[in-house]
Every structure is written in C-alpha cells, then in structure tokens.
Amino acid sequence: MCYNVVVETISCEEVIIMSTIRDVSKLAGVSVATISRYLNQSGYVSKEAEETILAAIQKLNYKPNNIARSLAGKRTATIALLVPDILNPFFPEIARAAEDVASRLGYTLILCNTDYNPDKERNYIDVLINKRIDGIIISSYTIRPEQIYALEAENIPVVVIDNAWEDTPIVSITSANRTGGQMAAQHLLDSGCQKIAHICGPYHITAAKNRMLGYEDVCKQQEWFTPSLMVYGDFSVSGGYSAMRELYAKHPDIEGVFAGNDLMAAGAMKALHEFSVRIPDQVKVIGYDGIHMDMFYPELSTIAQPIYSIGERAMMYLDQMIKEHPLEKKNYLIDVQLIVNASSRSL
To answer: Does the record carry DNA-binding as a key word (predicted)?
Structure first.
C-alpha cells in the first residue's frame, strides 16, 4: 500500500519558539508553583507577585496550555451558553453580554442553539461534559433540576437564565415576570382601556405563566373579564398574529392587548393592521422584553428586561462558581421597567 507523503520545509525564521511556565518563572523571579497558583487562581499570590507575573507573561507572550491543564484536572477556560432560539432577539443580546464578560475573564464561550429540542439539548450537554467544559449557562424550558444536579456532580457549575424552580438549590436569574405582567395590564387600564386581552406565552414556560398571572391579578376583578380574553401563542411573530386574529374574532370590542413578549406583540399589530384597526386610537398594544427592533410601527410600548445585564450577571455568577467562591444557590430576581411608546400612549 502506498501513501502520499507531503513534507514541507520551513526556514529557521518561521519557527515560533513557545514560552513555557519555567520561562515565566525565571523572568518573574518567582517559583513555578506561584505561577501555577496565579494561573489557576487556586491559592494566595501577593499583589506584587501578581503584577510581576503578569508583566512576564505579557513580555514572553506566554499562552497556558489549556489541554494539558485539563488533563491534569485543571480548568480548560471554556464555558458554554445553551439557548433555545438564537433567532429570538432576546438571546443574541444575552450571548453578547456573556461573551463580553467571558472574554474579559479569560474564557472562550461556545454557543449552542437547541431549537427547543430536549434531545438536541441532551446531546449538547453530553458533548460538553466530554470536552471538560468549565461551566454552562443554560436557558431552557425543558431541562429539569435533576439534570442540573447531574452536571454539578461532574464538577460542572450551571447558571440558569429565564427559568427557575421553587425551593431548589440552583443558581438562576429571572426578571420579575409577575410584577411585569401587573405593570403592563395596569398601564393599559390607566390609559383608558375598558377591555384588555392577553396573548400568553407557552404555559409550561415559567416566565410566560407568571406574566399571565400578573395580567390576571389586575384584570380578573374587572367586570368585563372572561377567560376567553386569554389566548396562547408560542413567543413568535406568527404565534402573536394567529392569537390576535382569534381574539379579535371573539372580542371585536377589545381596547387593549398585552402580549407576553415583543415578538408576539409584533404579530398582533400586524393582524390589527389587517383588520384596519388604528393603533393606539382604537386598540393599545404593549409587549414584554424590551428587545431592539426597528420594524415596529407605531413604536412598541413594552415591559423591558435588562437583557444585557442578565447575560453579564450570569457569566459573573458562573465565574464565581468555577473559582469556588461563595455564592448562594437561589433564584436572583431582576427588576423590570415600563417603557411607554406610541403603541399605547394616551391621546
């Protein structure tokens, strides 16, 4: 059997000499053990020594061998972000924030899009375990606490965003969804709406359910309230469009619509335009999330989540867990803000 062998020659000038940890140790004038503690953040290093080591690393352009460190049981400086739908504008902003902080802290971020598919999600998690990932930020509406406990048993810390479970020792970050639902419904009432509908997100999603409960807190006591004013969508533009057509067929006298996210609000506005309904003159519309979308006309009122801040905080919490710094395992609730724009403004 023959093999074609290609031999490429290079000149001496093309050879890149890689610095080693011993080179850094010699230049910095400290022990290899001190360098190792500094790199792995696994023990005390004086401020003066840190500055000397950093200067030596920069001068030598030293790059730690992450593969060798992982084989030795150390960190690989890689983390993963699992999201259910990267086309939803909420998640790219989360990803941008997490990546900004990860880069600043010396991590490489791997983005995994699960398409709301639990099988795909499990496959990603298996691959990440095999790659000795340092930690995972997960936005999932199907993952169960038992799966997160299993990851932590593999020494892989997890931060969950946009989902939470009561009385579970899991680090999660959510916005104040029920409060936000109350704010949206109350704003429409205060704007003069006499009959308000709600386009809900999928009921199995905790955030969607809590936004719906917030709407009910405000509207259930009203004389005009009926359960048929609540119709489910799927957090997509098309879902909001279909739900709005269904609502308008049942209740052509509605004066306000609270959509469970901004994408469904966009679909609802499209349906209302097709019915020749003037926004906000005849029907006022408010969404939820505060995503940046130029397509809205009139400009959409919304309950804004601090999306970038959520991504930042998730990465900072994950870094604390990776470094085994103290962090209470609980749900961290983030405040939301009412943003009033043309779609619900009083005339």
So the answer is: yes
Both 206 and 150 in one domain: the answer is no
| The pLDDT of residue 69 | 47
Note the pLDDT tens digit of each residue in 181-190: 999 999 999 9
* Torsion sign, CA atoms 128, 154, 307, 267: positive
Residues β-bridged to residue 161: 173
Whether pLDDT at 16 is above 60:
no
State the virtual CA torsion across 96, 98, 100, 106 in degrees, nearest 10. Answer: -150
Residue 15 confidence (pLDDT): 36
What DSSP string describes 250-285?
H-TT--EEEESSHHHHHHHHHHHHHTT--TTTT-EE
CA–CA dist 298, 52 (Å, integer): 57
Count of C-beta atoms within a 10 Å radius of residue 48: 9
pLDDT score at 40: 67
181 in helix, strand or coil? helix
Task: Give me the CATH number covering residue 49.
Answer: 1.10.260.40
**Lowest-pLDDT range of 16-20, 26-30, 168-172:** 16-20
3-state secondary structure of 314: helix
Number of structural domains found in the chain: 3
Q: Which domain holds residue 293?
A: 177-306
d(CA 140, CA 169): 17
Q: Which residues does 91 contact at the CB level (< 8 Å), separation at least 6?
A: 83, 84, 85, 139
In a domain? residue 252? yes
Closest CA to 56 of 18, 96, 27: 27
- Asked if residue 198 and residue 290 are part of one domain, the reply reads yes
Answer whether residue 34 is part of any domain: yes
How far apart CA 147 and CA 160 sit, in angstroms, is 12
Does the predicted TM-score (pTM) go above 0.90? no
pLDDT tens digit sequence for 90-109: 999 999 999 999 999 999 99
Tell me, yes or no, whether 3 lies in a domain. Answer: no
